[in-house]
Every structure is written in C-alpha cells, then in structure tokens.
Amino acid sequence: MGRSRYTDSAAGQAMVLFAAAGSLGLLTGLAPQADHRGGMRAVNVLAVVLGFAIARIPWSRWSPRATLVLAPTAFALIAVGRCVDPSGGPLYGVWLVAVFGWVGSWHAPRTCLGLAPLGALAYVMPFALRSPASSFEALATAAVAVPIAVVLGEALAARVAALREVQAALESSAALLQRANLTDDLTGLGNRRKANSLLDTMRPGDALALLDLDHFKQVNDSLGHAEGDRVLMAVGAYLLDSVRDADCVARFGGEEFLILLRGAGADAGAVIERLLEGWRNGGTGVTMSAGVAVHTAERTPAITLHQADTLLYAAKAAGRDRALIESAVHAALIGG
Q1: Of 94, 84, 87, which is closest to residue 43 (Cα–Cα)?
Q2: Residues 290, 312: contact at Cβ < 8 Å?
Q3: What confidence tens digit (pLDDT) does each residue in 75-103 have?
Q4: Which residues are tagged catalytic?
Q5: 140-189: per-residue pLDDT in tens?
Q6: 151 and 101 in contact (C-beta within 8 Å)?
Q7: Pairing of strands 248-253, 256-261
Q8: Where are the beta strands (DSSP E) in the chain?
Q9: What is this structure's pTM?
C-alpha cells in the first residue's frame, strides 16, 4: 500500500498532530485521578476539531509555506492549555518540541529560528499571567527548552533539505539516463527503442511513415563517413522541423527514419509528399523514399509497421525518390 495522504504532506502531518494532542488530552481526562477541568477539555476538543478542519482545507491551492500558519495556531493552543491546566507541565514541553519538529520536517532551514520568539512567548506567557515571580522561573526554563526545540527543528530542516537535494539529483540523473536511452546520439531524434515505444501508442487514424535515404552507401563510400554523418544530422534536423508538435520522429536504424503522424489519416500521403519535396529542394543531392500506412483498429502496430516497410521497399524498387502510400498501392506512385 502507498503512504497515507494524512502522513505524506505538511498539512496531513499537522492534522495528525492536532488530532493526536487533543485525543490524548481527552483520554487523559478520563483517568480516575484526573483533574476534570472544563477549560482543558474545551482546549482538547478544539485541537481535535482543528485537526479535522485542517484535513478539509485545500492547501494545494497555495504555496507550501501557507501551512506555517499552523505553527502559531499550535503555540496558541499550547499556551491556552497551560493557562487552564498548570499541572500539565511535561506535556507542555513535549508539544512545544513537536511543533518545532514538524516545522523542521516540512519547511526550509532557519524557519524554526524565525519562529523561536513566538515559541518563547507562548512558553512564558502562561507563567507571566499567573504571577511575576513565576514569570522569572518561566524565563529560566524557556532559555533551555526553547533553544533545544529550535535546534532540533533546525537539525531536521537541514537533514530534510539535504535529502531533498539528493532526491532531486537522483531524479535529474534518472531523467537524463532515460533520455539518453531513448535518444539517437548522432541526430538527436528518438532512437530505435523510442521508435518501438511510439508504435505502441498508435491509435486508429494515425499514419506511420518509414523513410530511407537513397543510395546512402555511395555517400559514405565516396565522400567518407563524416559526410554521411553530416547528411544524417541534416535529415534529423529537417524532419524534426517539418512535422507538427503532436507528431513524432525517430531514427529507426542506419539511414532509415520513422515518422508517426497523429490523426493524419488519408492526408498522410500529401504530408509525406510535401516533406520529400522539401528535402529534395534542399540541395543536399541525396534523396529519400518513403512508405506510408494508416493504422486501423483491426491491425496490430506490428502489422502497420510491416505494411509501411513493404511500401517503402516497393517505392525503392519503383525508382526511388518517391513515396508509396497505402491507399495508392494499385494506383500511380506519388512523387518521382
């Protein structure tokens, strides 16, 4: 099972803390020797209600820092609880540490430092309201309790920030690796693995075109592989610039390229014809042949690919520098 939505976000964990604090206080009040103070019971009920209210608020609409409003809310509850129940000393300090721990877990370093004066005020105020003498005692204990809570929160914040940096680096590396695994180094297009994945995304009405450079071996043999690589890079740039954003281009292997024309249907032939004409007029001296098949619901991607491949080689046999479209198998060749 995945993580609970109540424990994988700042607001979610705050909801748990508020509800847990209030519930624990109410359960403690049920003990036989408990001091049943109506004010403390009201504070505990309010904490539980706030916990459920936090769960209902659409925090995703705002910046993550918006949840910081919950820290002074918690400080206020702690202070009020201490005022109405002076006997709850140990839990008073525990919940103060819990608040700073929550802040450190979900917010940037130095946020706990910024909240330290407010936490100290919440700690000292109940003592000050009772008597001036007890306020001096509170200041002495606050000088120890609040720094400990802040240091804990800052330590957590630094640790979490470091872990997030590592996670971001890992995600970036994974994205780069995935991109490298699907990218042809020479042309920058998708590679054969990418082409195969594109085949699985074909829907009825998509058109699949296979293009192959004519007499490319002669380019390598007469002009050298460096020139051949230059031509391949030029083809990649041209194809990528010539298709729509929704369409996909990949180097299928060697001097063969695959184009997936989304929803092109019967218009695919005219699209590929214009593409071959544009390349022909580019003056590279190297032409292309193409085979185009339209995917249907009755076919598998493998069958559509086979049909495009068959048409490509038929176009080669018919004289090259042309496209053969599936709907025109028994009609005239396009181009050439």
Answers
A1: 84
A2: yes
A3: 999 888 888 876 655 566 788 889 999 99
A4: 255
A5: 677 788 888 999 999 999 999 999 888 888 887 776 666 667 788 899 89
A6: no
A7: antiparallel
A8: 207-213, 248-253, 256-261, 288-294, 322-325, 334-335
A9: 0.56
- pLDDT at residue 331, as a whole number: 32
Q: List pLDDT tens digits, range 189-236.
A: 989 988 999 999 999 999 999 999 999 988 888 889 899 999 999 999
CA 322, CA 336: separation in Å to the nearest integer? 5
Phi/psi at 260 (5° precision): -105, 110
For residues 91 and 13, what is the distance between their CA atoms, to the nearest angstrom?
19
First-to-final CA distance of the chain: 60
Work out the average pLDDT over 294-305: 93
146 touches 123 (CB < 8 A) = yes
For residue 131, with 0-12 CB atoms within 10 Å meaning exposed, 13-18 middle and 19 or more buried, which class applies?
exposed
In order of their start, the domains of the chain are: 10-177 (no CATH), 192-335 (3.30.70.270)
Q: Is the dihedral of CA 105, 109, 111, 112 positive or negative?
A: positive
H/E stretch holding 202 reads none
